[in-house]
Design brief:
The structure holds two protein chains of two kinds.
Chain A lengths: L11 E7 L2 E7 L5 H8 L18 E4 L2 E4 L12 E3 L12 H8 L9 H14 L5 H8 L10 H14 L3
Parallel strand pairs in A: 1-5
Antiparallel strand pairs in A: 1-2, 3-4, 3-5
Chain B lengths: L33 H5 L15 E7 L5 E7 L1 H5 L5 E4 H7 L19 E2 L5 E7 L2 H8 L3 E6 L6 H4 L16 E7 L2 H7 L2 E9 L11 E7 L4 E6 L9 H7 L6 E4 L15 H13 L5 E4 L2 H7 L7 E9 L5 E11 L7 H6 L13 E9 L14 H19 L3 H8 L8 E2 L5 E2 L4 H16 L8 H9 L2 E5 L2 E7 L29 E7 L5 E5 L8 H13 L6 E5 L16 H28 L6 E4 L2 E4 L5 E3 H11 L5 E6 L10 H5 L7 E14 L5 E11 L6 H20 L29 E7 L16 H17 L9 E2 L3 H10 L3
Parallel strand pairs in B: 1-12, 8-30, 10-11, 14-15, 21-22, 28-29
Antiparallel strand pairs in B: 1-5, 2-4, 2-6, 3-5, 7-15, 8-13, 9-10, 9-12, 13-14, 16-17, 18-27, 19-27, 20-21, 20-26, 23-24, 24-25, 27-28
Helix pairs in contact in B: 7-8, 11-20, 15-16, 16-17, 19-20
Classes of the chains: A alpha+beta, B alpha+beta.
Chain lengths: 166, 822
C-alpha cells in the first residue's frame, strides 16, 4: 500500500511474530499497529472504533500485555510478539472466553467483542478467580455500546469458572 | 456484491433446543450470528477492500458559518499519488442536491457557496491509501469569508440572521395540536404548575463509524455500493436521487454485520454519493471511505434531539391531572433530516401512561449552524417522557404529595385498555398501575430492609458523608412498530389532511423471500439490514416453528436494495412484530407451494396431500416428499414451487381503531411495550456526581420471541439511557465550535457507570400482532433517562433541587446545589 516508490516517504523493515508466525514487512513509521494488523496481516478481528485509545475495540496482546493497537506504531513492534483473537484458539473451535460470551449473550453488534476478549484473556491469566470488582476494573478500558455490560460481566465470570484448573 | 455466503450462521446442533411443547419461539436460543463475530471472521464494512481500491478522505470546514471565496486544489492535484480531487462545484456541475427533510433547503454532498456547520465537507480526494489521502487534504487551500454563527436556538427564532437565506427564516416548521378543551381544563383546575426543561443534544455513537465501498460499472452504467446504511431498502432514494440514477441502477448492499446504528446510520448517504461519484470519475475503480471517530462525532450527520421545553400541568387538589400543555423548541442544526417525524412521534405516547384528556402539543423546529439532526433510538420520544415526568414531579412537589401516589392515581387502568390517546394512537394491552405496584413491592422487600440499599440506617449514615440516596418510581410506554405514512406529514399540505380518507394511507410492509436448496435447506432472505439485534436467529426460530423444522434447517441471508421491494425495515422497534407476521405468511406460502408441487408430481388432487414436519404427506399412504425431494422435483417441473415470498402488511392497517390516526397522519404505533422503573441513585452533594447503585426494571413487551435477546435489548437500552441522563452531550460554544469531538469529551458509559440491573419480566401479549409480540428495541433508551431524573429528584428533595437539564452532569447538579433552584 504505502510502499509506493514514486514518493520519497521513508520506510522501515520490521519483523514481528504475529499469532506465532513470523511476518516481515516494509512499513512507513507512521503506520498504526491497528492498520498494520488489519491491512498487512489481514487480521479482521482487530476493530478500529476511535483511533484515540478510548474504546478499546482494537485491543491486542503485545509480548503478553494488552495494548490498544491504535495507539502504537507498527515499527514499535519490531522483534515483538503480538496475539490477536485469530491466535487464541484453533481454527473452528472457540476459546473458553469466546464460548462464555456466546453462552451469556455478551455481544450484540460485536464490534467491541474482540477487544473485550483480549482484555478478559490477559486479565484471567493473571486473576483466575476474580471478584466482580476486579472484573469491573479490568474491563473499564473497553466500551460496549450495545449490551449494557451485565452479560459481559457474567461471561467473564463463567469463563473464569470454566477455565479453572487450566 | 451479493452478501450470500458471508452471513454464515454456523448453526450448531446445540442450538436446536426446543421448549417443552416442541417449539422454538419463546426459547432463549443462543444467537447464530455469534460464531463468526467471536472468531473475527465477520466482515464489517471496514473489512471490505476490493483489489485496487482507492481511499477517499474529506476536507471539512472548521468554521460554523462562512462563505466560500475560493478553493485552491492545485497543490493536491500535483501530488504524484493524487488520483482525484472534487469540490462542491464539481459535484454540482453533474449531479443533484441531496434530498432534504424540509422543502426550500438545498444541500449538496460537498458545500458549494457557503458552509453552515463545523465539520461540513468542502472537498474530497482519492488516493491509494488513507494516510496519503489525508496528506492531500493538507494541500487544499480554502479561502473563507466568515460570519457570526447562529448558535442559540431560542434566539435564532427572532430571525435577526438566518441560516438559509433562501428560506428566510430559522423556523421552517411549527405546529400546534389541541386535543380536547385545554383552555377550560387549565381555567378550571385548582392548580397549574409550569416549568422549563432542557434536553441536551446526544446520539447513538455506535462503536463502528459509517463506511462505504462504491464501485461504478462502466459497461452497464450502474453502481454497486457496499455500505452500512440503515434501512437500505427504504432510504435508497437518498443515494440514487443525488446521483441522478434509477433505483435499479444503484444497488445498496449492507454487510450482514453492522457495528451498531441505533438509528444514526440512516443518514450516511453523503458518503455513499461521494464515493460513487468518485468511482465513476475514476472509470470504475472502487472507492472506499470509513469515517474516523472525530468526523463521526462532529460532522457525521448523526446528532439527535436537542430541545428546550416549557411544560404546564393542570391539577386538582385531589391529585387529578386535568390537562397537559407541552411546548418545545427543537434545534435541528443546519440541515434537518427527519424533522417532523421526530417532533411528532411523541404524539404516539402523548400522555405516557397517564389518563389525561385535554392536551396541547406545540413545537417549533429551529435551524442553527450546527451538525444536522437525525434519528436516534426512540426518535424524539425520550425527551418528551423526560419533560412530562419532571412536570409530574413538580405537580407532586407543589401539592405536597408523594410522587408515587400522584402517578398511581393518574395511570391508565387495566380496565381502560385498549386505550385511545387524545392523539388517536391506541395502547394495546397492559396493567400499568399493577406493574408499578409490583415493582415497588419488590424494591421495598429487597432494599428497605436491614443491609439493603435503602435501609434507613444506611441512608442516614450516607447522608452524614454528604451522599444522598433516592429511589424513583415511574412507568413508561414504548411506542412500537411504526409503518404508516405519517412520517411524510411534512410533505403534505396541512389543509389537504382534512380531506384525506383511509384509502389514501400508504403502508410499509415487511418482506421475506425464500427458496429450498437441493439438500433441503430453506434459505430465507431479509429485505432489511441488521446491526446486532439477532434477526437471523429470530427468523430461524419463527420459521422453524411455522414450517415444523429445526433452526439448523434454515439459513437466513439478505437482499440488496435493487433486489428487494421498497419496504421499511429495521427501525421503530418493528422487527419482532413485523417478522412474526412475515414469517407466518411466508410459511403458509411455502406450504401451499409444496403441496401443489407434490400433488402435480403424484398426479393427485390437492386435497389428498398435506405439508407437516418438513415433508409433504400423501393421504392414505406412507409416501412422503422431503424438502430435498421437492427441490429435485422442482428442477424437473421448472415451476419454482420451492420458492415463496410474502409481504406482511402493517398490523394497524387491519384494525379500525387506528383509522382516525392513520387518516390524519398522526403517528401510529400499534404496540405499547411498557416498563416500570426504579433506579436507586446516590448523589454526592459535594461533587454533584450521581452513582446509580442498582436499576430495578419490570418490563413487558408482550410475547417474548427470544427472552435472551429481549433482555439484551433492555439492558443495552438502559445503558444508553444512563449515558443520556448523566454523561453524554454534544455541546457547542458561542462561536459554533463543537465541544465534544473525541470520546474523551463525548462520554460513553463504561462498565464503571452501568450498575447492576435487576430486570423483572411479565408478558401481556398484544391483541394486535401475529404472535402477541410488541416492539421492544428502543425501550431502555426511552424510559431510562426520565426514570433516572425522577430518582435524582427524590434523592435531592432535602435541597429542593430538581433535574431540569439533561444530562445531569456533576457540574450542573453542583451549581444547582450551591446556588439553589434559580
Amino acid at each position: 500500500m504505502s510502499t509506493d516508490t514514486t514518493t520519497d516517504r521513508p520506510t522501515r523493515e520490521i519483523s514481528v511474530t504475529v499469532n506465532g508466525e513470523e511476518v516481515t514487512a516494509e512499513v512507513e513509521p507512521r503506520l498504526k499497529l491497528s492498520d498494520f494488523l488489519r491491512n498487512y496481516v489481514d487480521l479482521g478481528s482487530v476493530r478500529v472504533g476511535c483511533e484515540h485509545g478510548v474504546c478499546g475495540a482494537c485491543t491486542v496482546s503485545v509480548d503478553g500485555d494488552i495494548a490498544k493497537s491504535c495507539l502504537m506504531y507498527a515499527v514499535q513492534l519490531d522483534g515483538k510478539e503480538v496475539t490477536t483473537v485469530e491466535g487464541i484458539s484453533e481454527a473452528g473451535s472457540l476459546h473458553p472466553i469466546q464460548e462464555a460470551f456466546h453462552e451469556e449473550h455478551a455481544l450484540q453488534c460485536g464490534f467491541c467483542t474482540s477487544g473485550f476478549i483480549m482484555s478478559a484473556r490477559e486479565f484471567l491469566a493473571e486473576n483466575p478467580d476474580p471478584t466482580r470488582a476486579e472484573i469491573k476494573a479490568a474491563l473499564a478500558d473497553n466500551i460496549c455500546r450495545c449490551t449494557g455490560y451485565q452479560n459481559i460481566f457474567d461471561a467473564v465470570e463463567r469463563a473464569a469458572d470454566n477455565m479453572e484448573g487450566d | 456484491m451479493s452478501q450470500t455466503g458471508e452471513a454464515g450462521t454456523e448453526a450448531e446442533a446445540e442450538a436446536d433446543v426446543e421448549t417443552d411443547d416442541g417449539t422454538f419461539v419463546g426459547t432463549g436460543l443462543n444467537r447464530v450470528e455469534d460464531h463468526r463475530i467471536l472468531t473475527g471472521e465477520a466482515e464489517y464494512i471496514h473489512d471490505i477492500t476490493p483489489e485496487g481500491c482507492l481511499h477517499m478522505a474529506l476536507l471539512r470546514t472548521t468554521h460554523a458559518r462562512a462563505d466560500i471565496v475560493e478553493v485552491d486544489t492545485s497543490e493536491a492535484e500535483a501530488h504524484p499519488e493524487c488520483e482525484l480531487v472534487l469540490t462542491g462545484e464539481d459535484v454540482a456541475a453533474e449531479y443533484n442536491p441531496m434530498p432534504s427533510g424540509l422543502s426550500g433547503i438545498e444541500e449538496w454532498a460537498l458545500a458549494r457557496d457557503s458552509v453552515k456547520f463545523v465539520g461540513e465537507p468542502v472537498a474530497m480526494v482519492a488516493a491509494p491509501d488513507r494516510y496519503v489521502a489525508e496528506d492531500l487534504l493538507d494541500m487544499i487551500d480554502v479561502a473563507y469569508d466568515t460570519q457570526d454563527p447562529i448558535v442559540d436556538p431560542v434566539d435564532a427564532r427572532r430571525d435577526d440572521e438566518v441560516v438559509h437565506e433562501e428560506l428566510g427564516t430559522n423556523v421552517p416548521d411549527e405546529e400546534e395540536f389541541v386535543f380536547g378543551d385545554v383552555d377550560a381544563a387549565f381555567r378550571e383546575a385548582d392548580t397549574v404548575v409550569e416549568n422549563q426543561y432542557s434536553w441536551g443534544r446526544i446520539s447513538g455513537v455506535p462503536l463502528e463509524t459509517a463506511g462505504v465501498v462504491a464501485e461504478y460499472d462502466t459497461e452497464r452504467d450502474r453502481f454497486d455500493i457496499d455500505c452500512n446504511i440503515q434501512l437500505h431498502t427504504l432510504v435508497d432514494d437518498t443515494v440514487y436521487e443525488p446521483l441522478g440514477y434509477d433505483p435499479d441502477d444503484v444497488s445498496l448492499s449492507v454487510p450482514p454485520d453492522v457495528g451498531g446504528s441505533f438509528g444514526t446510520k440512516i443518514a450516511i448517504h453523503r458518503y455513499c454519493v461521494l464515493a460513487a461519484i468518485a468511482s465513476k470519475k475514476l472509470d470504475g475503480t472502487p472507492v472506499k471511505f470509513v469515517e474516523d471517530r472525530i468526523e463521526n462525532l462532529q460532522g457525521g450527520d448523526m446528532h439527535s434531539s436537542d430541545r428546550e421545553y416549557l411544560v404546564r400541568l393542570a391539577c386538582d387538589d385531589d391529585g387529578t391531572i386535568r390537562g397537559l400543555d407541552v411546548n418545545f423548541v427543537d434545534d435541528f442544526g443546519a440541515y434537518p433530516r427527519y424533522p417532523v417525524n421526530q417532533t411528532l412521534k411523541p404524539l404516539a405516547v402523548l400522555t405516557n401512561a397517564y389518563d389525561i384528556e385535554h392536551v396541547r402539543y406545540n413545537y417549533e423546529l429551529v435551524l442553527t449552524n450546527k451538525t444536522a439532526q437525525t434519528a436516534y433510538r426512540g426518535f424524539g420520544v425520550p425527551p418528551h417522557l423526560y419533560a412530562l415526568e419532571m412536570a409530574i414531579d413538580e405537580a407532586a412537589r407543589e401539592a405536597g404529595v408523594d410522587p408515587y401516589e400522584l402517578r398511581q392515581s393518574n395511570l391508565i387502568g387495566p380496565d381502560q385498555v385498549p386505550y385511545t390517546l387524545p392523539s388517536n394512537n391506541v395502547y394495546d394491552s397492559g396493567d400499568y398501575p399493577g406493574a408499578l405496584a409490583e415493582l415497588k413491592d419488590t424494591v421495598e422487600t429487597q432494599e428497605l430492609t436491614e443491609g439493603g440499599l435503602l435501609d434507613p440506617e444506611v441512608v442516614a449514615q450516607q447522608r452524614e458523608e454528604g451522599k444522598y440516596r433516592g429511589v424513583g418510581y415511574s412507568v413508561h410506554i414504548e411506542p412500537g412498530v411504526s409503518g404508516s405514512d405519517w412520517t411524510d406529514r411534512q410533505r403534505t399540505d396541512r389543509e389537504t389532511l382534512e380531506n384525506r380518507s383511509r384509502e389514501d394511507v400508504a403502508e410499509l410492509p415487511e418482506y421475506l423471500q425464500g427458496s429450498v436448496d437441493e439438500d433441503g435447506t430453506v434459505v430465507v432472505y431479509l429485505a432489511t439490514d441488521t446491526s446486532g439485534q439477532g434477526h437471523q436467529t429470530i427468523v430461524k426460530q419463527l420459521l422453524a416453528d411455522e414450517l415444523e423444522l429445526l433452526p439448523s434447517d434454515i439459513e437466513v441471508s439478505y437482499l440488496d436494495s435493487a433486489e428487494a421491494p421498497t419496504e421499511y425495515g429495521t427501525a421503530a422497534s418493528r422487527m419482532a412484530v413485523m417478522l412474526s407476521g412475515a414469517a407466518q405468511g411466508l410459511a403458509e406460502a411455502f406450504a401451499d407451494n409444496f403441496e401443489r408441487l407434490a400433488a402435480t408430481h403424484w398426479d393427485i388432487d390437492r386435497t389428498a396431500v398435506s405439508y407437516r414436519d418438513g415433508a409433504v404427506h400423501r393421504a392414505n399412504s406412507d409416501e412422503t416428499l422431503s424438502l430435498a425431494d421437492l427441490a429435485a422435483i422442482d428442477e424437473d417441473y421448472q415451476e419454482s414451487l420451492t420458492a415463496a415470498e410474502y409481504a406482511y402488511d402493517h398490523p394497524a392497517s387491519e384494525i379500525e381503531a387506528f383509522d382516525e390516526a392513520l387518516t390524519r397522519k398522526y403517528p401510529v404505533y400499534p404496540t405499547a411495550a411498557f416498563a416500570a422503573n426504579a433506579p436507586i441513585v446516590e448523589v454526592d452533594v459535594g461533587t454533584g456526581a450521581v452513582e446509580i447503585l442498582k436499576f430495578y426494571s419490570l418490563r413487558d413487551c408482550g410475547t417474548q420471541l427470544n427472552p435472551t435477546i429481549v433482555e439484551g435489548q433492555a439492558m443495552g437500552g438502559l445503558a444508553q439511557g444512563i449515558g443520556a441522563a448523566l454523561l453524554e452531550e454534544f455541546s457547542y460554544d458561542d462561536s459554533g465550535q463543537p465541544q465534544a469531538i473525541t470520546l474523551f469529551d463525548y462520554l460513553l458509559p463504561s462498565v464503571t457507570n452501568v450498575p447492576e440491573m435487576e430486570l423483572l419480566h411479565t408478558e401481556t401479549p398484544s391483541p394486535f400482532t401475529a404472535t402477541g409480540a410488541k416492539g421492544t428495541g428502543e425501550g431502555g433508551m426511552i424510559d431510562g433517562p426520565a426514570s433516572i431524573a425522577v430518582a435524582i429528584n427524590r434523592a435531592l428533595e432535602p435541597f429542593d433541587v430538581v433535574v431540569d437539564e439533561i444530562p445531569a452532569t456533576p457540574h450542573r447538579l453542583r451549581r444547582k446545589l450551591r446556588d439553589g433552584d434559580e
